[in-house]
Write a structure and sequence with these properties.
Strand content: under 5%
Distance between the termini: 25 Å
Order of helices and strands: HHHHHHHHHH
Shape: globular
Length: 203
Amino acid sequence: MRADARRNRDKLLDAAIEVILEAGGDPARDAIAARAGVGIGTLYRHFPDQPSLLNAVVRRTLERTIEAGEAALAEATDSFDALRRYMHSALDHGIGVVNLIHPLVDVRDPELRGRAGSVIETLISNGRRDGVLREDTTAADVVFATIRFGRPLAVGLSGAEERAIAHRHIDIYLDGLRGSRAAEASPSSPEGAPSARGKRRRK
């Protein structure tokens, strides 16, 4: 794929994630093209039908979230910070779309599922091993909560306001998962350290 075509495809997928989160479900194709700043013909060349678009959206979201988790495991200062970074990054990458359009897609990729499961299980097992997470913490506690916080509230807030509230709620939720040896969490909500998406914008 040529570089310009790749850029257009990436813009379309990023726009689709934003529109899905705003609409709360199946997005309008003309709205996605307009948000991406490309013609509707460009959208159809990359994604000839809605299922191909939505499958690509879910795959992109999952791949970015997995990569964020792998980076957190490699770079975080401790196991609790790794989990915190993963959950906030997943929110920034639009993890809420997975639940919103799940009935409309069918992404069956053993490698992707395996990487995702490995990241989550490692984050949790490291935290329990270090005593910074409750012993009864499970993968479902992390996965379902992160997706739930990523869903739009549908109460008329802007996208930025939605994300700020979701980041705050993730921090509060993480406080509830703390084990006896968890250190004081560093700020990760919009009032504190910048989110992963914020860092990318400033590069």
